């Protein structure tokens, strides 16, 4: 894939979805599916965090989280959309910052490739708390989708984030063609889920079928995960 990305005469687009995925849930897959349709990327990278600096310790092991990701995103794979579970943040074995991961991806994929980092509106609303957050735009584009209760209107964002976005908004086609620096907003994703909601349901013994995919829930049950 790396060699093809640098091929002359064509701009490649790689969509990147990072997260703790502890566990992966319907919202993660819906976000990836939405932008797969909008951007028509050449590949999708799923990046499970190793030691996420903004969250407490992970409950599931790296091995279990990766296994659940393979189950969850298997249906999204196709000849036109390769899906890869990228383990670089896990293998780094240090607190993981998105900016460092994007630097590594930019070095790997080259200067011309459009890298689109996907996130929900809840993450955009606290983007200014991320490490070297302005540097993200020098490395990648952002694809941001709504989440119920999180407004994408500029007045709902921190002023510094709203100001930064004011000159960066672009259509999916533009984002697909440009290597970095643009933001595509998708106000059409109406999925209100979080990993903490799913963990709480699993720990309480409540029905979690509306929150997680059947194959992932089966894996969780078989491996006795998220019981306490």
TrEMBL record:
Its EC number is 2.7.7.18. It comes from the Bacteria. Residues 16-199 form the Cytidyltransferase-like domain. One of its GO terms (molecular function) is nicotinate-nucleotide adenylyltransferase activity. Gene3D superfamilies: HUPs. One of its GO terms (biological process) is NAD+ biosynthetic process. It catalyses: nicotinate beta-D-ribonucleotide + ATP + H(+) = deamido-NAD(+) + diphosphate. Pathway: Cofactor biosynthesis; NAD(+) biosynthesis; deamido-NAD(+) from nicotinate D-ribonucleotide: step 1/1. CDD domains: NMNAT. Pfam families: CTP_transf_like. Keywords: ATP-binding, NAD, Nucleotide-binding, Nucleotidyltransferase, Pyridine nucleotide biosynthesis, Transferase. InterPro entries: Cyt_trans-like, NadD/NMNAT, Rossmann-like_a/b/a_fold. It is an enzyme of class 2 (transferase). Catalyzes the reversible adenylation of nicotinate mononucleotide (NaMN) to nicotinic acid adenine dinucleotide (NaAD). Belongs to the NadD family. This is Probable nicotinate-nucleotide adenylyltransferase. It comes from Massilia arenae. The gene is nadD.
